[in-house]
Design the sequence.
């Protein structure tokens, strides 16, 4: 069994009296592209930054590339690329100087790749960073994170400020590079369509806990919406297993359920004396249902 | 509560130090009235309540000008109904409140010194200059100070007004009214007020262009580390020295022109010099916050990051500060005839206070309020040291004790900082703040 690139065991984090993360256990295997989903304030940034060792967990443990996050070695850090939610670029420098500065930290720096990405993504490297737009700054942060061919790429809301074309270019680059280098990517985002394009796994955070961690396809197959049309009025409590939400209106009902198995459909239809229609949901709808 | 009253409340209580001073003045004022009702005349309570009130008024005078700009800058505020008019009205009410005693006295037969009466007017005008036009404020400050010195010689001013056939009180009130009317018109008509920036944009842009030109070569690993830690602070000691040079030169010219050995000005500057290390704590704390940038990039452990941050502060910032302090000392000696022994005592206090401040800032990495307790001890030690150094005759034994305490505390705090950096949490880290940063934080 391969060693996970990222692993969290019963990870919790509290700030004062506020518990932001509560017993998170999850792992990322080499080559995984994991999308971290969650509402604002769900703890996505806290989770990513604790995994990277920016702060100690209040309980549990976090490991990256087989090392404790708080005591990462220089060689382990050299294999990580990170784009924080708020960029940490130095306003006073030009884009080219910032590239030069970042390159000085890495023994393995691919100047050709950075130059190609800067041209493809239209990043004006000759301008002072203070003068760049939010989107341009984000693109610069992204190419700085890719320049040393990291084995693990951690991106906190990497495309929030990019226009759709830039987003697609970035996702394409991410998918292409991942295919070539077997890179592990962990990225948080609100843009579900990007996640569907790039990720093979999803971690869904809800109120500091992991509401779902697994294959994206499995999530999409597992959460369904049931449309129930009965011959007579339905009870308020339909007792549907793993129901996420339900709405009953006389003889009609709509239920969202997780971990749904097609074999359960016939039994439910028979119990309720109803016709049952099973609807597959898109990731965005699943996200909404998981947060009801 | 009307809109104007709400803005007035903001002007009067937005800054924490205002609230503390205001509450202190209220409590002591109540106590003083209580003693009066009981037939007691406990003068220290009266004196303290008056001092608190005076300090609250001073803090509000400064904060009001600053807040006027801070509140006026956000573009969203432009869409609030009558925002500028209401904000201005509240501000002018404060101007009126602080000017009224002086203006009233002006009309009375037993008129005290005109300089004292005009002080709030000049002070608030200067604050406005400082926050609305930071670059010209240095020049304006010089001119206003010169004007104050002129007005202070009230007999001459009286003679001048008498010659013109104008009663001095009418002239002062007319100047007062004309100035605030002109400001009101400008404030209401100016299309956009940008956020406050210090140092002025024109100076930082120039310095930044110099910096970029200077460092056009390739970064090495060590220069990359130092740049990541320090560029946010106006580009290192040499650039900072270039920034402050014009104001230092202007002040030097002013003090040479108005040279008065032994005036309270000299005492104020000496006190300022002694208090300088107080700001090194928040400064070092900000550097510790920026070490986060290097956690992944540099590959250094937390212990190594502490050493890097410490070394960067000592090598890149302290030399510049030493130059500034020595220049200030020479200037004080030349402009105010401050004796070498007194300057030596102040420099000694600075030298022992600086490490205390630096390691206090590097040890305060949790961002909780408890960290302000050693900060308070530090400020008290500096204040006691300043008293010992400035006393006549000097309290050398006190000064030695304070120096020894500060050095020992610095050593202890360094050991403590190394311990804390093992678990430094950049997710929760909030740097120490000086009172001036607290005010700027309102932006």
Sequence:
């Amino acid at each position: 069994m391969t060693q996970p690139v990222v692993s969290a065991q019963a990870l919790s984090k509290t700030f004062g009296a506020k518990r932001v993360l509560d017993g998170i256990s999850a792992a990322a295997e080499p080559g995984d592209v994991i999308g971290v989903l969650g509402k604002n304030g769900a703890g996505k940034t806290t989770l990513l930054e604790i995994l990277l060792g920016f702060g100690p967990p209040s309980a549990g443990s976090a490991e990256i590339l087989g090392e404790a996050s708080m005591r990462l070695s220089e060689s382990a850090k050299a294999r990580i690329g990170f784009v924080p939610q708020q960029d940490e670029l130095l306003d006073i420098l030009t884009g080219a100087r910032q590239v030069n500065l970042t390159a000085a930290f890495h023994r393995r720096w691919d100047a050709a790749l950075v130059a190609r990405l800067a041209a493809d993504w239209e990043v004006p490297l000759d301008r002072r960073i203070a003068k760049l737009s939010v989107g341009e700054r984000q693109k610069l942060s992204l190419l700085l994170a890719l320049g040393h061919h990291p084995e693990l790429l951690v991106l906190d809301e990497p495309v929030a400020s990019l226009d759709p074309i830039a987003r697609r270019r970035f996702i394409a680059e991410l998918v292409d590079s991942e295919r070539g280098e077997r890179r592990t990517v962990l990225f948080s985002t609100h843009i579900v369509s990007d996640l569907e394009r790039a990720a093979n796994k999803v971690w869904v955070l809800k109120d500091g806990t992991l509401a779902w961690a697994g294959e994206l396809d499995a999530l999409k197959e597992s959460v369904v919406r049931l449309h129930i049309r009965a011959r007579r009025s339905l009870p308020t409590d339909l007792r549907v297993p793993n129901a996420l939400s339900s709405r009953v209106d006389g003889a009609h009902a709509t239920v969202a359920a997780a971990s749904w198995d097609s074999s359960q459909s016939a039994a439910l239809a028979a119990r309720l004396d109803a016709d049952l229609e099973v609807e597959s949901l898109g990731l965005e709808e699943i996200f909404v249902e998981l947060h009801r | 509560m009307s809109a104007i009253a709400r803005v007035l409340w903001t002007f009067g209580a937005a800054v924490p130090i205002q609230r503390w001073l205001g509450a202190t003045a209220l409590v002591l004022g109540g106590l003083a009235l209580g003693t009066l009702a009981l037939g007691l005349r406990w003068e220290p309570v009266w004196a303290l309540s008056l001092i608190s009130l005076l300090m609250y008024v001073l803090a509000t005078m400064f904060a009001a000008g600053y807040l006027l700009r801070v509140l006026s800058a956000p573009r969203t505020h432009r869409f609030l109904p009558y925002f500028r008019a209401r904000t201005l009205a509240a501000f002018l009410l404060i101007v009126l409140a602080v000017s009224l005693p002086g203006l009233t006295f002006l009309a009375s037969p037993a008129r005290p010194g005109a300089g004292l009466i005009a002080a709030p007017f000049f002070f608030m005008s200067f604050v406005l200059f400082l926050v609305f036009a930071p670059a010209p404020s240095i020049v304006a400050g010089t001119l206003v100070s010169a004007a104050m010195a002129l007005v202070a010689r009230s007999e001459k001013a009286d003679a001048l007004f008498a010659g013109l056939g104008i009663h001095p009180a009418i002239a002062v009130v007319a100047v007062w009214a004309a100035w605030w009317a002109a400001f009101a018109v400008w404030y209401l008509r100016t299309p956009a007020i940008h956020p406050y920036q210090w140092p002025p944009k024109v100076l930082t842009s120039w310095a930044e262009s110099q910096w970029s030109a200077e460092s056009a070569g390739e970064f090495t690993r060590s220069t990359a580390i130092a740049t990541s830690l320090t560029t946010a602070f106006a580009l290192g000691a040499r650039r900072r020295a270039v920034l402050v040079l014009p104001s230092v030169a202007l002040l030097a010219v002013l003090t040479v022109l108005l040279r008065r050995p032994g005036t309270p000005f000299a005492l104020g500057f000496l006190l300022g010099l002694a208090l300088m290390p107080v700001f090194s704590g928040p400064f070092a704390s900000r550097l510790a916050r920026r070490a986060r940038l290097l956690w992944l990039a540099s590959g250094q452990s937390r212990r190594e990051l502490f050493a890097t941050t410490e070394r960067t502060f000592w090598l890149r910032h302290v030399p510049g500060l030493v130059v500034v302090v020595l220049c200030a000392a020479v200037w004080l000696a030349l402009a105010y005839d401050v004796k070498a022994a007194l300057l030596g005592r102040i420099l000694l206090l600075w030298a022992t206070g600086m490490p205390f401040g630096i390691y206090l800032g590097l040890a305060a990495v949790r961002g909780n309020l408890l960290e302000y307790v050693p900060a308070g001890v530090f400020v008290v030690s500096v204040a006691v040291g300043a008293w010992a150094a400035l006393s006549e005759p000097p309290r050398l034994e006190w000064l030695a004790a304070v120096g020894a305490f500060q050095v020992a505390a610095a050593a202890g705090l360094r050991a403590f900082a190394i311990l804390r950096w093992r678990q430094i949490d950049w997710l929760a880290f909030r740097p120490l703040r000086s009172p001036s940063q607290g005010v700027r934080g309102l932006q």
